[in-house]
Design a protein that fits this description.
The protein is α+β, with helices and mostly antiparallel strands. The protein contains two helices and five strands, in the order βββααββ. The chain has two domains: 67 residues, no CATH class; 58 residues. Strands 1-2-3 form a three-stranded antiparallel β-sheet. A two-stranded antiparallel ribbon has the order 4-5. 9% of the residues are buried. It binds zinc ion (ZN).
């Protein structure tokens, strides 16, 4: 997913300004801290750079795990959940397109039958429930 790197918060992999670590959990680039969770999906740990410097502390960075924990507390979906949902949406869109094509074919087939003088009732699965000859007295 493309990131907007023009905003106030930049996503970086290698914080340079000291202490060059997460302000909450203290993890630094290259560290494997199981308590902090480590990078997502085996990727390099990313940090949010707010462009903030505090006297007697230094640069304020948050690691991706702490950002995700924070976002979760605000009700945001995790990247894992988001990717899973996006995959489900793609699958359902494909299914929907296929079903729309099937519906068009069924409607076309039914239209041919109606034109042939038959009144056919089908259920949602396309099963024929009844078929009658259309009366010519309707007009
Ligand atoms: Zn952290």
């Amino acid at each position: 997913m493309a990131r907007d790197q023009s905003g106030r918060i930049q996503v970086i992999t290698n914080p340079q300004a000291l202490p060059a670590s997460c302000a909450i959990c203290g993890i630094a680039p290259g560290q494997s801290n199981s308590n902090a969770g480590g990078p997502v999906g085996g990727q390099e740990m990313e940090f949010a750079d707010f462009g903030l410097q505090f006297e007697f502390y230094g640069a304020f960075y948050l690691c991706e795990r702490c950002v995700f924990e924070l976002a979760d507390n605000f009700g945001c979906a995790s990247p894992t959940l988001t990717n899973s949902l996006m995959e489900q949406v793609r699958y359902l869109n494909e299914q929907n397109a296929g079903l729309k094509n099937q519906l068009k074919e069924l409607e076309r087939a039914l239209g041919d039958h109606v034109l042939a003088g038959l009144n056919i009732t089908v259920d949602s699965n396309g099963n024929i429930l009844s078929s009658d000859t259309v009366s010519a007295t309707n007009s």
